[in-house]
Amino acid sequence: MGGKVLVLMYHRMGPKERYMVRSRANFLSDLERLYKLGFRPVTVSEYAENRMTIPPGSSPVVITFDDSHPSQFRLTKDGVPDPNTFVGAWLGWAKNRPDFPVKATFYCNANGPFGPEREGRRKIAMLQSWGSEIAAHTRNHVNLAKVSPEKGRKEVAESVLYLENRGARVTAFATPYGVWPKDRSWLDKGFRWNGRLIKFSSVAAAGSGPGHSPVSRHFRPMALPRIQAYPGTKGIDDWLKRLGQKRYRVYVQP
Ligand SMILES: [Zn+2]
After folding, report:
1. What is the pTM for the complete model shown?
2. pLDDT higher than 80, residue 32
């Protein structure tokens, strides 16, 4: 079964567009372009486990946010999502597009918008109620190729437990810097940590092209490629342009 799946990667929202920073206007224009092209959002785990529930004839897009930056999700003093964050902007935009809800995957470290325990719990509950998922990204954003396997497992396990403690259901992982440990078998197969099995249905990398459909024989959920949401070569603009030029096909939900 042919067709590619776009997994987009966002980090921070800021006034000036640059590497790892997407402006609010460009984020909203990304959503609008995707919507008009017939994409509908799914989470990484729905994609990796082949349980996407988008309408037949539409194409999945996986929107991911890395590093739990505050610009991803803030609440105002009144307790509502700040429109100057990715979540708040998307929520406002989706009011008139209920078939493109805030459904994304947030690869989190132990900090940022989900850091303070009570507020973290509240935000995670909100995101999960909209269909989004919370995923792991190590506790301290370590480079897994540069730490011992023991330290690597500790970083991964502790990030899962930290997020679970705030009410998250964690089934996906992304490697910081897109770097794998030298021996990645424990990450692929799962491992025990204080008696607990830590195992993921997918592991995402950093770049730089569309992924295979979950029914393709080339599909490798333990090394999902992603596309950076930035204007440069191999970024989102480039890949959407290639799609318009019919240089590749996207997966269409049967
Ligand atoms: Zn990261």
Report:
1. 0.97
2. yes
Residue spans of beta strands (DSSP E) within the chain: 4-10, 12-13, 21-22, 39-42, 59-66, 105-108, 133-136, 172-174, 191-193, 196-198, 202-204, 211-212, 227-228
Indicate whether 91 belongs to any domain: yes
The CA 73 to ligand 1 mean position distance, Å, reads 16
Domains contained in the chain, number: 1
> Is residue 143 domain-resident?
yes
- Dist. CA 224 → ligand 1 center (Å): 15
Distance 96 CA to ligand 1 centre (A): 32
> Tens of pLDDT along 153-209?
999 999 999 999 999 999 999 999 999 999 999 999 999 999 999 999 999 988 779
Say how many Å lie between the CA of residue 228 and the centre of ligand 1. 12
Residue at 249 is within a domain: no
Report how far ligand 1's centroid is from the alpha carbon of 202 (Å).
16
Distance 245 CA to ligand 1 centre (A): 31
Q: Judge whether 252 lies within some domain.
A: no
233 compared with 64, residue with greater pLDDT: 64
